[in-house]
Amino acid sequence: MSTNTPNTNKLVEESYDKIAAEYLDWTLSTPSPRLEYLATLLKDLSNPSKARVLELGCGAGVPGTQFLAKSCEHVTGVDISAAQVKLAREHVKDGSTEFVQSDMLALEFEKETFDAVVGLYSILHLTKTDQVVLMEEIRGWLKPGGYFVGNFALTGSEGTSTWLGGEKMFWGGWEKEEWLGKMKDEGFEVLKGDVVKDVEDGRDVNFLWVLARV
Q1: CA-based, 20 to 30 A from 118: which of 48, 55, 64, 157?
Q2: Is residue 29 part of a domain?
Q3: pLDDT band at 94 (very low <50, low <70, confident <90, very high)
Q4: Parent domain of 51
Q5: What is the pLDDT of residue 9?
Q6: Element (H, E) at 8
Q7: Does the pLDDT at position 22 exceed 90?
Q8: Is 65 among the domain residues?
Q9: Which string of DSSP letters, residue by residue, matches 91-160?
């Protein structure tokens, strides 16, 4: 991986705009515990039908946003890529779902707005420092007893590499124990923290999958 870039958010936005369709195909064809963790979230929520959920990095809206929208009162899907948001609006037309194009770090919500926040394959595109800043924001957006579901890259580093369609992509991540410690420091109770292997382009890539409560 190369050294960190000065404008990582713009890089991520432009790359996802270019590979939106290809990334959708990759998402649907690559095995992932995504729906397993979302199902656990819905099971743990006291009343999913009344839940307000924020999804950070909603992508094209499938399968995650669709899955949440079927059970939750309201889902707010956020993505930095205009192309991804366009696809999401085409795939999820439920009246209880809204989509917002935004950098995650630019979001502003009232405190204790959401019953759950989801961040799958998204937070890992921030610098390591910004990931911790975002987790602090998420802690504030969650209602008491609210849940967080997300996964994190276990790179222990940050930088850019060539990814889908030959596009550059930025990644950042801490090691497992560092992440679990930082989540505890931010006021999260980690209920589940598993290292799960994905296979990307024939390579094994480990992610830390987390279910946590505040």
Answers
A1: 157
A2: yes
A3: confident
A4: 8-213
A5: 92
A6: helix 8-18
A7: yes
A8: yes
A9: H---TTEEEEE--GGG----TT-EEEEEESSSGGGS-HHHHHHHHHHHHHHEEEEEEEEEEEE--SSEEE
